[in-house]
Design brief:
- This protein is an all-alpha fold and about 290 residues long.
- The chain contains 10 helices and no strands.
- It has helices spanning about 5-35, 40-55, 60-70, 80-90, 100-115, 120-145, 165-180, 180-200, 200-220, 230-235.
- α5 (about 100-115) crosses α6, α6 crosses α7 (about 165-180) and α7 (about 165-180) packs parallel to α9.
- It is globular.
- The termini are far apart.
């Protein structure tokens, strides 16, 4: 095979992939936005407003303490308290990072996810990826230093978690896997790998965990009882067909020969009803 043919095939594959990604990430959400209007961006507006609100409150010393108490998650907190603060932590930005750039990414991630996945799944993915990072960091601290770099020292438990950035990374990664968008995937997951290598810190680890959790969740996207084996799918409660009640002995004798047999009989088609005004309706045999 010539080199020119290989290059041509690779070019055609690249064009098809980019075209499909453009339609899946941009064209389809824009069409849904035109159909649903601003009601399809409720989560995006709420998330952006929450980040702006908590950032404005945290600009004062008293407000910063309130924000830390309401949504600051650390690994040294009791588990129940960390779980209670995790939903609020999605709207608490890192004070050492530019907030407006983070708001743009946050709004775009929630907007695309809400238009593509729906509100319920968007909330679930954002919370699950953030919680995965929080719980995994606790496990790393419990392991302790060593273990080929997986463990963390105990003083890491006093560092605040990443806030909404883990949810943003998780949503972009989930969308890129579901929509088969390699460019978006490498811009999110690839950048997180580069960040963790260039600047190893707690945020980089939580971002990598969010990417891994989003990939695992995306692999099960759209799968339900239909992908189970036929015998196992019959045991799922919402797929089970109730068996008919057993007829008493002798009740079935003299029944029509065309009656269906078996545990799941097919329903008989309704008999056509003849209108009395039609000729020949309700005519009895006089012979």
């Amino acid at each position: 095979m010539r080199v020119r043919d290989v290059v041509a095939r690779f070019a055609r594959f690249t064009v098809r992939t980019l075209r499909a990604e453009w339609h899946g990430i941009v064209v389809d959400p824009v069409r849904r936005l035109a159909h649903r209007g601003l009601s399809g961006l409720v989560l995006a507006f709420v998330a952006a407003f929450g980040v702006v609100f908590f950032h404005a409150v945290a600009q004062r010393p008293a407000g910063e303490a309130v924000v830390r108490i309401a949504g600051g998650v650390q690994a040294d907190l009791p588990l129940w308290l960390a779980l209670l603060r995790t939903p609020v932590s999605l709207y608490v930005p890192a004070l050492d990072l530019p907030v407006w750039a983070g708001i743009t990414q946050l709004f775009l991630a929630f907007a695309l996810a809400e238009l593509t996945l729906g509100r319920g799944r968007t909330l679930f993915i954002s919370y699950a990826t953030t919680l995965a990072g929080t719980l995994t960091v606790r496990l790393m601290i419990a392991i302790g230093p060593g273990w080929w770099g997986l463990g963390l020292p105990p003083e890491t438990g006093r560092i605040l978690d990443t806030g909404p950035s883990a949810a943003v990374v998780g949503l972009f990664t989930y969308l890129s896997v579901v929509r088969r968008a390699p460019v978006v995937f490498f811009l999110t997951g690839g950048s997180m790998v580069v960040e963790s290598v260039v600047k190893p810190n707690l945020a980089g680890r939580e971002h990598l965990i969010a990417v891994a959790a989003a990939v695992v969740l995306a692999l099960f996207h759209g799968r339900g009882p239909g992908w189970l084996p036929r015998r196992a799918a019959a045991l799922v409660p919402w797929r089970r067909i109730p068996a008919p009640a057993a007829a008493p002995a002798g009740a079935g004798e003299g029944a029509g020969a065309g009656a269906a047999t078996g545990p799941y009989p097919l329903p008989r088609p309704p008999r056509p009803r003849r209108h009395p005004a039609l000729p020949g309706a309700n005519v009895r045999d006089s012979s």
